[in-house]
Design a protein that fits this description.
The complex is a heterodimer.
Chain A (H helix, E strand, L loop, with lengths): L2 E10 L5 E11 L4 E6 L5 H8 L7 E6 L2 E2 L5 H10 L1 E4 L11 H12 L4 H10 L15 H14 L4 E5 L7 H18 L2 E5 L3 H4 L4 E6 L2 E2 L1
Parallel strand pairs in A: 3-8, 3-9, 6-7, 7-8
Antiparallel strand pairs in A: 1-2, 1-4, 4-5, 9-10
Helix pairs in contact in A: 3-5, 4-5, 5-6
Chain B lengths: L1 H14 L1 H38 L7 E4 L5 E2 H9 L4 E11 L2 E8 L8 H7 L14 E3 L1 H8 L7 E3 L7 E5 H8 L4 E2 L1 E4 L10 H4 L3 E4 L6 H38 L1 H9 L4 H46 L11 H27 L12 H29 L3 H28 L12 H52 L4 E4 L3 H11 L5 E12 L2 E8 L3 H6 L2 E4 L3 H6 L3 E5 H7 L6 E5 L2 E9 L7 E6 H7 L7 E5 L5 H12 L6 E3 H54 L4 H43 L9 H28 L2 H9 L3
Parallel strand pairs in B: 4-7, 5-6, 13-18, 15-17
Antiparallel strand pairs in B: 1-9, 1-10, 2-8, 3-4, 3-9, 5-7, 11-19, 11-20, 12-13, 12-19, 14-17, 15-18, 16-17
Helix pairs in contact in B: 1-2, 1-10, 2-8, 2-10, 2-11, 2-21, 8-11, 8-13, 8-14, 8-21, 8-22, 10-11, 10-21, 12-13, 13-14, 13-22, 14-21, 14-22, 14-23, 21-23, 21-24, 22-23
The chains are: A alpha/beta, B alpha+beta.
The structure holds adenosine-5'-triphosphate (ATP) and magnesium ion.
The site of adenosine-5'-triphosphate has 10 residues of chain A, from helix 1.
């Protein structure tokens, strides 16, 4: 298994601690695509952030490619994000001070895996060729998300995590972006864990999981 | 509607108290800096004026005994009989309580008006000051000490008198000082009758001293005042930039509030008025606080200042500050002007603000390029205007216009230049690891420039002022030390009572010392101005020590042969005669200029010829003063022996070492003060960086969060934040160095020449620059670390919000 989530719990501290995840478990093989659905506030984003080693869980274990996340310190978690997982958020993924071209290559360069041909191909496939020299703020929302996806795939991650990557887009551009993403993921052989509200989108992935009451059903 | 809008504006500050604090603190600090400099400056100027005018010293030529001793009242009587309009002054020191005070005795009937006398005139009958049981005038402190002594006459308190000084009738002063029939000096009143006999006939023992020539040292130290004035100007510019910066940020931060209010239907005009009113309120509050702060800083500095003034002007300056309306007005004016200027600019942008523009959607790349262009053009225009002023105007005004144009222009040029530097392609070594972070770092630094540029401009000015004024003061000191060393080369100076005694002393000295160098001079007119012509004997001591700025080959040998003349820089500049020119010293006495020497602090022209040449062309050259070369350790013994053999008064023997020490002490003190003010300016500039970074911080997280998500640790990001600030400060310091040197150059060779007629050679002090650079870098690091430290404490969920929330 590329990714295993084993009985993970997480609660938010407060006057009374609010448990969000109460023993969520899930496994994902290399190259698989999975859609995670659930009501708003059910903890989808929280789980994704834990998998991306952006935050720490209270108990349980998450392993990626044999690495147990609970054993990592901050530097180790950062290295994992730099080199093995890639992330696409709903918005504001890009570094505003770098051009589209620089953004596209950025993660691959951090990971130390720059493949110029592959990046050029990605750029063409994502239709970003004419926008290479622009800055993120000069792009539309859909264009920005395409850059974010390109950046994530440019580093050839083993695992791509996406949190409603098309949530801010209208239906047409949303479909177009998703199509591209699925195609390219298949090409790279990455596993995909995608959080979405939309059953229509979920239906297009190989597997589906539903988060409710802090557990995955 | 207005009330609701005001509430909305104010609510922003309630939600962001730190921003409000930095805004007010920035305004207050800028005002404090400026008013502290002003207060010190005003105090210095006032003390000088007070000292000069209260003792009636200003403007009158005077007669003194050539020996420097007291003169006999008989000389005074003789002069009056011959028709000379003079008035006697007796000055001495008297023990009063634990300390000594200066007693100045005058003749109230003939003495020119004194502020203290005018002040007392309302309360005292004119005749009361006179007579054996007369009155004493003194300030409150001295008066109290006088009253404690029942044996002293009654005292009248006046304000316009230096501390530790008593002014009274000369008859009473004679008694108090125990100096019957003695006079210290005679003031020569204006309107002398026609045809009075010359001084040499009536009182040959007296010497006329020109009001202007009297205090070489005081003239010299006018430079200190000028130095402070230039510093005041620069601190004003620094303050203005900081006020402008903080106010501008206050508007920038509230863009969304303004936009929302506009969207809700508040008219642009109403919003403008509201925002302006708010700015005026803040500027007044913070300006007031800044004045108090500046006052405290100045008061803390003032013991040093008072000591300095005491040293410079020879009078004790009061160690307390008086609140002067001019610097209160200046401080408040700057705070208000800076805030309104920045506010007006921001409001102008605000009025054209599109209501619907989405936040963060301005294409910064393009906007920044346009701003850079405008700033660059403005900066060059200001520098050109400064240069033009130099051509069109003259005098000090031109110098200061040049200074202002240079400094402000350079400040405006800073952001475009920094932008250019950050755009330069980095040389990439073959095989060096690919470093995307370095690329981001530079791009990010460029992006942060607009937000930081005002603080950086303030830093630039502060550093340049530091380097410029520091270089000036240090050059000043170094020049004077070596100049004093050279000019006061003899270990001991002796002044005899008359020519006969002079000859005796010289004869007595010759076998006992290494060399006796006669100092003989006459005053005559050359090139249309008064010139003191000195005759010097042919002695290697001159050749080896006298500082020549410019000389013909073999100048000293030719001078000894009586072929030419050496002239002082002042004379050369004023007459336009330099080496090779011919100078007429009198009828049939024309000599070629063999060289020019530095003669700092001396307002009148000087020239040197060989002793034979002088004696051949001038009659009645006194032969009473000598420089004596002798081993320094023998000086005290020699002084004692001379006194015993010739009954010389204290003032007739001058120990060169003591004289030098006194002069140096003065410079050391000016150093302390400029040093303190320098540190203060730098601190304020550092604070400006801090406030800018603090206010930019709210926009900072969204810029850093993507990097964190891509696997850069928060600790690393924090280090990069600090590095960025340090790098920008370092680049600014690099640019400040040449600017500071240009500033020093202008101060030394333009302003000083305009003001005093001589140019100071510039000395460079790289170690000082290094210290300053380190200080600036440290300030920048601290300023960046304070907000950046929070980065490590931010919970990941806060960083993650960036990607989920609408912003
Ligand atoms: N930093 C936080 N502090 C406290 N509670 C939080 C925090 N972040 C999220 N929560 C809470 O945790 C729960 C899960 O949030 P999460 O963002 O994971 O939901 P989600 O399933 O992604 O919802 P959505 O579909 O709306 O994005 C919510 O009830 C939310 O209020
Ligand atoms: Mg979510």
């Amino acid at each position: 298994m590329l990714l295993t989530i084993d009985n993970v719990t997480k609660s938010w501290p407060g006057e009374t601690a609010v448990p969000v995840l109460r023993g969520a478990s899930l496994a994902l093989a290399a190259g698989e695509t999975l859609a995670l659905t659930g009501e708003s506030g059910s903890g989808k984003s929280t789980l994704l952030h834990l998998v991306a080693a952006l935050d720490v869980f209270d108990s349980g274990e998450i392993t990626i490619d044999g690495t147990a996340l609970s054993g990592l310190d901050e530097a180790g978690r950062a290295a994992l994000r730099r080199e093995r997982v890639a992330l696409v958020f709903q918005q504001f993924n890009l570094i505003p001070t770098l051009t589209v071209g620089q953004n596209l290559a950025f993660h691959a360069r951090l990971a130390g895996r720059v493949d110029r041909d592959w990046i050029d191909r990605l750029t063409g496939r994502l239709g970003l060729g004419a926008l290479i020299r622009r800055y993120p703020e000069q792009l539309s929302g859909g264009q920005q998300q395409r850059v974010a996806i390109g950046r994530a795939l440019a580093m050839r991650p083993a695992l791509l995590l996406a949190d409603e990557p098309t949530g801010n887009l209208d239906e047409d551009s949303s479909d177009a972006v998703l199509d591209l993403m699925l195609e390219l993921v298949a090409e790279t052989g990455a596993a995909l864990l995608l959080v979405t509200h939309s059953p229509r989108i979920a239906a297009r992935l190989e597997r589906r999981a539903h988060l409710a009451g802090g557990k995955i059903g | 509607m207005t009330g609701a809008a005001a509430l909305a504006l104010a609510s922003h500050w309630r939600r962001h108290p730190l921003q409000l604090f930095t805004l007010l603190a920035g305004l207050a600090l800028a005002t404090a800096l400026w008013s502290a400099v002003q207060a010190v400056n005003a105090e210095a100027r006032a003390a000088y004026a007070r000292a000069a005018e209260q003792l009636g010293a200003a403007g009158y030529d005077r007669l003194e005994s050539r020996s420097g001793a007291f003169m006999d009242v008989a000389a005074y009587v003789a002069l009056r009989r011959a028709g000379w309009q003079v008035t006697p002054v007796l000055e001495g020191r008297m023990r009063l309580g634990p300390d000594r005070v200066t007693v100045v005795g005058i003749d109230p009937l003939t003495h020119p008006s004194l502020p203290a006398l005018d002040e007392a005139a309302g309360r005292v009958q004119p005749g009361e000051l006179l007579g054996p049981r007369g009155l004493l005038l003194a300030d409150a402190g001295t008066a109290a000490r006088i009253r404690a002594r029942p044996d002293l006459p009654p005292v009248v308190e006046v304000e316009q008198i230096p501390p530790d000084t008593i002014i009274t009738d000369i008859g009473l002063a004679e008694r108090l000082l125990g100096l019957p029939g003695r006079v210290s000096r005679l003031l020569i009143l204006p309107d002398q009758p026609q045809g009075i006999p010359p001084l040499t006939e009536i009182a040959p023992a007296l010497e006329r001293i020109d009001a202007a020539a009297r205090s070489d040292m005081a003239r010299l130290t006018d430079s200190f005042q000028l130095n402070l004035t230039a510093f005041g100007l620069l601190s004003f510019a620094v303050g203005l930039f900081i006020v402008h910066g903080t106010t501008g940020l206050a508007f920038e931060q509230r863009r969304p509030v303004f936009r929302t209010l506009r969207a809700l239907g508040l008219p642009a005009r109403r919003l403008t008025v509201l925002a302006l009113a708010e700015m005026v309120l803040f500027a007044t509050l913070a300006g007031g606080a800044g004045l108090v702060l500046g006052y405290l800083v100045a008061a803390a500095l003032l013991p040093g200042v008072a000591a300095t003034l005491g040293g410079i002007y020879g009078v004790p300056a009061p160690g307390s500050l008086t609140l002067r309306p001019e610097w209160i007005a200046g401080g408040m004016g700057m705070s208000l002007a800076g805030a309104l200027l920045a506010g007006a600019q921001a409001l102008w942008r605000l009025r054209r603000l599109p209501i619907l523009a989405a936040p963060g959607q301005h294409a910064w790349g393009l906007a920044a390029a346009r701003t850079d262009l405008a700033l660059g053009a403005g900066g060059l225009a200001l520098i050109a205007a400064g240069g033009l002023a130099m051509v069109l105007l003259d005098g000090l005004i031109a110098g200061f216009a040049l200074l202002a144009g240079l400094m402000l222009g350079a400040a405006l040029l800073l952001p475009p230049i920094l932008g250019l530097i950050l755009r330069l392609p980095l040389p990439r070594r073959a095989g060096a690891p690919d470093d995307p972070l370095a690329e981001w770092f530079r791009a990010d630094m460029r992006a942060q420039l607009p937000g930081l540029s005002l603080a950086l401009m303030a830093l630039l000015l502060a550093l340049a002022a530091n380097i410029g004024v520091g270089t000036m003061v240090a050059s000043f000191r170094l020049t004077f030390t070596s100049w004093l060393d050279q000019r006061l080369v003899s270990e001991l100076y002796v002044t005899a009572r008359d020519d006969a005694q002079g000859a005796q002393i010289a004869r007595w000295l010759r076998p006992r010392v290494d060399a006796v160098l006669p100092i003989r001079a006459v005053e005559l007119r050359a090139a249309g101005q008064p010139v003191f012509v000195h005759g010097i004997i042919d002695h290697p001591v001159y050749r080896d020590n006298w500082p020549l700025l410019d000389a013909a080959p073999g100048a000293w040998e030719r001078l000894a042969r009586g072929e030419g003349v050496l002239i002082s820089e002042q004379l050369a500049r004023r007459s336009g005669k330099w080496t090779g020119a011919r100078l007429a010293l009198g009828p049939g006495w024309e000599r070629i200029v063999l060289g020019v020497y530095a003669d700092y602090g001396n307002p009148t022209g000087q020239a040197m010829v060989s002793m034979e040449d002088l004696l051949e062309h001038a009659r009645n050259v006194p032969n009473r003063r000598f420089g004596i070369r002798v081993a320094p350790e023998r000086v005290p013994e020699l002084i004692g022996a001379l006194r015993a053999a010739f009954d010389l008064p204290a003032g007739a023997l001058i120990d060169q070492a003591a004289l030098k020490a006194r002069s140096l002490e003065i410079f050391e003190r000016t150093f302390v003060i400029t040093g303190a003010l320098n540190i203060l300016t730098l601190g304020v500039a550092g604070f400006a960086i801090l406030t800018s970074l603090l206010t930019l911080w709210s926009m900072r997280l969204p810029q850093l969060a993507p990097l964190w998500a891509l696997g850069i640790t928060r600790r690393r990001l924090m280090r990069l934040e600090i590095l960025r600030s340090v790098a920008l400060a370092g680049l600014t310091a690099m640019l400040a160095l040449p600017l500071g040197l240009v500033l020093a150059r202008v101060l030394l060779s333009v302003i000083n020449v305009e003001a005093f007629g001589w140019r100071l050679p510039m000395h460079l002090f790289p170690l000082d620059w290094l210290r300053l650079l380190l200080l600036a870098l440290a300030a920048a690091a601290v300023a960046a670390a304070i907000p950046a430290r929070r980065l490590t404490g931010v919970p990941p969920s806060d960083l993650l919000k960036v990607f989920a929330n609408e912003r």
